[in-house]
Specification:
Blueprint (H helix, E strand, L loop, with lengths): L1 H45 L4 H14 L6 H14 L4 H12 L2 H16 L3 H50 L1 H9 L1 H25 L4
Length: 211
């Protein structure tokens, strides 16, 4: 009974946790690759390329360097295909922003859309955006370094209660039996589970510092 209870709980919580962590890691990876892409974009615009041709050149560089497995390579492929179909760059960037849900890309797409309509200095705008994203990335990396130990402690504390239950059940099954057979025991264990889930949620919210 106890093992079935633990299996059900883990089958519910673990996929949710893994999905959240994978999404976070993907977003961090996309932000890093996007920063590199717009840094290259700034260089090409400084060399006299239009923003459309600059994106095409960045995509060609990605092909030469065999970066096909990178997330940004796939997005650049979509942008270049759109440009070849005469879709304007603002629409392509906004589409990328909506699909990715990445805050840096959303901000960049909005800035580019305004700059293209107002005829602003594209080089200066992109240089400032690159600097802002670079600073943000550095701060995020420092925060992750400082909170890595705390997150490890959180994971350990989350696993410990289940390990204790598992150990006691193996060594003295009759000791825990009332907690899973009687009405009062089930209420207590349910309340304990809710408290563990709440503490996990609160601790994650505390350490997930948005820059």
């Amino acid at each position: 009974m106890i093992f079935l209870f633990l299996a059900v709980i883990l089958s519910i919580l673990l996929p949710m946790y893994m999905k959240r962590e994978l999404k976070k890691k993907r977003d961090e990876r996309l932000s890093s690759e996007f920063k590199d892409a717009i840094t290259a974009l700034s260089g090409y615009i400084s060399a006299g390329f239009s923003i459309e041709n600059a994106f095409i050149e960045i995509y060609r560089d990605e092909l030469k360097n065999d970066h096909r497995n990178q997330l940004m390579h796939k997005e650049l492929s979509v942008i270049v295909s759109g440009l070849r179909m005469n879709i304007n760059i603002e629409s392509l960037l906004m589409d990328l922003a909506k699909r990715s849900g990445n805050g840096d890309i959303i901000s960049f797409a909005q800035i580019m859309s305004i700059a293209k309509r107002s005829g602003g200095d594209m080089k200066e705008i992109i240089d400032r955006t690159v600097n802002i994203i670079r600073d943000k990335t550095q701060v995020s990396e420092e925060i992750n370094t400082l909170t890595r130990g705390i997150r490890l402690e959180q994971n350990v504390m989350l696993v410990v209660p289940f390990f204790i239950i598992f150990y006691i059940d193996l060594s003295s099954h009759s000791f825990l039996a009332p907690l899973y057979t009687g009405y009062a025991g089930r209420c207590v264990m349910t309340a304990a589970l809710i408290m563990i889930a709440a503490s996990c949620f609160i601790s994650r919210r505390i350490t997930d510092i948005e820059v």
